[in-house]
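Lab notebook, bench 4. Still working through the backlog of constructs that have no structural model yet. Next entry is a single chain of 252 residues. Request: give me the structure tokens for it.
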Amino acid sequence: MIDTHSHLFEAEFQEDLELCIQRCKENNVHKIILVGFSESTNSKAYDLSLKYDIFYPTAGMHPSEADCDFEKKFQMLVDFIQSHKIYAIGECGLDYHYGKENAEYQKKLFEYQILLAIEKDLPLIVHSRDAMKDTWDILSKYKGKIRGVMHCYSGSWEMAKEYIKLGFYISLGGPVTFKNAVESKRIAKEIPLDKLLVETDCPFLAPTPYRGKRNESAYVWYVVKEIADIRGISFKQVEEQTEKNSKIVFGL
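Model written out:
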């Protein structure tokens, strides 16, 4: 299995990172996309990838980084990827969950990263929270030029089909295991298996039976199992296809 979205560099894992990696190997999670989202986390993701061959780093600027200094932060990102091997731009995108006061900065920072991904021929890892329309409006302008992942997708199945047409894969995480996750379960059932990815977004969004606790990359196993159960197919079928998809997206 491949966890396509992990933040194992976070402080929550300082005491037991080695054990987390061991649990991954025990659960056949043998590749992890380590996703940066700020100047400091981009460096942390890259540095850990040099130490452990299980990690594949990305670099981006999360919408929470969008403020009046966003152009300076973006230039730091450009400088970083000039001298560091990464596998995707992101995570980047839009997040209006806590308000839209910085929405214009978010949109500009997002669009800069889209153009960077096109220039560098890299996939995008897109974060969209309570901002699906604006996310679509921006991405759709670049149809035919972009590809990537709709990370921890929380939109509708109807919208997911449109993102697939744009060249994106849909990634599901721990929420698909929640009892009340009606739309996520619908997507898990309906989506063509060759357009699906799995992730943890750890340390966030732990799946059932760990909901509310710290998430970790080994728990992607529960996501794969839930999708297999929903579709009525074998665990191995979901495991093998999502791994194949991940290798295509990230060029592994």
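Notes after review: The chain has one domain: 2-250. The chain has nine helices and eight strands. Flag for follow-up if needed.
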